[in-house]
From TrEMBL:
Enzyme nomenclature, EC number: 2.7.7.81
Top class in the EC scheme: transferase
UniProt xrefs under Gene3D superfamilies: Spore Coat Polysaccharide Biosynthesis Protein SpsA, Chain A
Gene source species: Massilia terrae
The protein's name: Pseudaminic acid cytidylyltransferase
CDD domains, A to Z: CMP-NeuAc_Synthase
InterPro entries for the chain: CMP-NeuNAc_synthase, Cytidylyl_trans, Nucleotide-diphossugar_trans, PseF
Length: 231
């Protein structure tokens, strides 16, 4: 059995109610739910939430909300892995056992069904515990700057001041969209970022973290531009 788990707690502070805030004509979470359903990868698409309004919106857009997430898994300090592990254990206690689980973030309007299918293929082909979405940094991280408390600039790695960009190793970061994993890896709390994970590479123009109002505005611009391109 293959399970999609979309974590969506109600306590977002920087963008209040961001999981169900309207984005391009739909509640934000609807984009993740619809991508999961259209991917045809999953036997169940579950939203894990502690919030009744989010639960109602999720059900309206086709997801299941078979439980309310416990309060101890809905605070500001709880990470993704225990939330997904809770959903996997709930499913094991109430129905067929799960073999592969995909955590899809509720604020991932750029996630595509084809990307989810590719992620499952990578997980199965690689034999790793996880396969998750990544994209490349737009600039060499070896030439990154910091601004100190005295408002002066310095390099993180000053030894690369004279290095040419093309001579520096390309760096990647978590795209913040989806994380396929084997059920036993989630249940064991196995670390996501490590040698037992395989990348699912996404283009930078389809990746935007959404944590602040500025992120949200940028995501809307990107979404509008992509919609026009594909129209």
């Amino acid at each position: 059995m293959k399970l999609a788990v979309i974590p969506a707690r109600g306590g977002s502070k920087r963008i209040p109610r961001k999981n169900i805030k309207q984005f391009a004509g739909k509640p934000m979470i609807a984009w993740s739910i619809e991508a999961a359903l259209r991917s045809d990868c999953f036997d169940r698409v579950i939203v894990s939430t502690d919030d009744a309004e989010i639960a109602d919106v999720a059900r309206h857009h086709g997801a299941e909300v078979p439980f309310i997430r416990p309060a101890n898994l809905a605070d500001d300090h709880t990470g993704t892995i225990p939330v997904v592990a809770h959903a996997v254990q709930w499913q094991a206690n109430h129905g067929p056992a799960v073999d592969a689980v995909c955590c899809i973030y509720a604020t991932a309007p750029f996630v595509q069904p084809a990307d989810l299918r590719q992620g499952l293929e990578v997980l199965q082909r690689s034999g790793t515990a996880y396969a998750f979405s990544v994209t490349s940094f737009a600039f060499p991280i070896q030439r990154a700057l910091r601004i100190g408390a005295d408002k002066r600039v310095e390099m993180f790695q000053p030894e690369h001041f004279n290095s040419r960009s093309q001579d520096l190793e390309e760096a990647w970061h978590d795209a913040g969209q989806f994380y396929w994993g084997r059920a036993e890896a989630w249940l064991a709390g196995k670390q996501l970022f490590g040698r037992d994970a395989a990348p699912v590479v996404l283009p930078r123009y389809r990746v935007q973290d959404i944590d602040t109002p500025e992120d949200w505005e940028r995501a809307e611009w990107m979404f509008t531009a992509l919609s026009r391109t594909s129209a």
